[in-house]
Amino acid sequence: MIEVKPLTQELLPDLEALFTTSRETHGCWCMWFLIPYKAYKAGGPEGNRQRFIELMEATPFPIGLLAYRQGEVVGWCAAGPRSRFVRALGVPSFKGRDPSEDDSVWLTPCFYVRKDARRDGVSRALLEAAVALAVEHRATAIEGFPFAHGVKVGRESMVAVEALFAACGFAVSRQPSETRVVMRRELNG
Questions:
Q1: What is the pLDDT confidence band of residue 171, given thresholds at 50, 70 and 90?
Q2: What secondary structure, in 3-state letters, does 68-129 show?
Q3: 120-124: long-range contacts at Cβ-Cβ below 8 A with a sequence spacing of 24 or more?
Q4: Parent domain of 38
Q5: Mind listing the pLDDT tens digit for each residue in 124-165?
Q6: In this structure, what CATH number is given to the domain that contains residue 90?
Q7: Residue 90: which residues within 8 A CB-CB, separation 6 or more?
Q8: Pairing relation of β-strands 80-81 and 72-78?
Q9: Number of domains in the chain
Q10: For residue 95, what pLDDT is reported?
């Protein structure tokens, strides 16, 4: 069984342990979609870690969720208002969005599941918990921008795939390219 918990200060050591299992997460600290590229590169892994912790301490609600299998941390999902993810909003996938919704519509731009826990339902549990967290904080909708059905996924699989979002009640709201879709689930009704 997968248990999902919102990230709190007390759980930060678990996130640190998870992020050290991969070169990408250890260096990124889930800042890729949050800050400009120059800032992302300038601070390196330690700078990104520090920015992440500062953001976690400054925001009034959790900035993501941790997944546990038999008490061991195995996955992460970033979640929060679209307005938080400044760099993500600059990608072609979000051209045409309604900017007036950026504070009320939440985004789940990034997932990480430890290699030995993949294909065990961890991503789905994280996404379902992200929806519940968005509802709890009165979001009107929640979105993601996964790879489109049929696209061969490689290193960038951290954005997930269309089938995951569809299985959790999301529908395609736009397809900005052959490889990406923006999936959305309305929460206000």
A1: very high
A2: EECCEEEEEEECEEHHHCHHHHCCHHHCCCCHHHCCCEEECCCEEECHHHCCCCHHHHHHHH
A3: 120/2, 120/69, 120/74, 121/2, 122/2, 122/67, 122/69, 122/74, 122/75, 123/75, 123/77, 123/160, 123/164, 124/164, 124/167, 124/168
A4: 2-186
A5: 999 999 999 999 999 999 999 997 887 776 655 688 888 899
A6: 3.40.630.30
A7: none
A8: unpaired
A9: 1
A10: 85
Residue 165 CA to residue 163 CA, distance in Å, equals: 5
- 135-171 in b/e burial notation, b at 16+ Cβ within 10 A? eeeebebbbbbbbbeeeeeeeeebbbbbebbeebebe
Q: How many CB atoms lie within 10 A of CB 121?
A: 16
User: What tokens appear for 174 in the block?
Assistant: 């736009």
The 10 Å Cβ neighbour count of residue 51 is 18
The whole-angstrom separation of Cα 133 and Cα 81 is: 11
Residue 79 CB coordination number (10 Å): 30
The pLDDT tens digits for 57-109 are 998 889 999 999 999 999 999 999 999 999 998 888 888 899 999 999 999 99
